[in-house]
């Protein structure tokens, strides 16, 4: 029997979008592969996250800063992604995410980092909560991601 061919890793870009209470926009996935977008050939990282966020949530955002990279292997799906995490700000702070890809996402909610970290605390809990693997890896690999995001947003606010 021939061995399964392992595809080359792909690059995905995901935006971290916060509300005024420090919660982040998180999707409830339907399957093991979820939100975030593939970086297209020649595309800028921030252009990718802005495009994908608009396509998936209807939110108009601006990419501000890369804050993390995760190595995400979906063994069951034979997929491997290098995921670039970026902080984004909404053009309209009052705009709420919409469910624009019902085949991929049950809906969007604002979640606190503590809740996300608790959901990612072990593989069984993350699977039970249907937590997107790259998000689980982000909070495991960068346990202070909440501080990193808050600091970057505070720096941005001071620049205004």
Automatic annotation (TrEMBL):
Gene Ontology molecular function: 8-oxo-7,8-dihydrodeoxyguanosine triphosphate pyrophosphatase activity
Gene3D superfamilies, alphabetized: Nucleoside Triphosphate Pyrophosphohydrolase (3.90.79.10)
Keyword Hydrolase found: yes
Any single GO BP term: dGTP catabolic process
Residues annotated as domain Nudix hydrolase: 7-133
Entry's Gene Ontology cellular component terms: cytosol
Pfam family, one: NUDIX
Entry keyword set: Hydrolase
Protein name: Nudix domain-containing protein
Originating organism: Apodospora peruviana
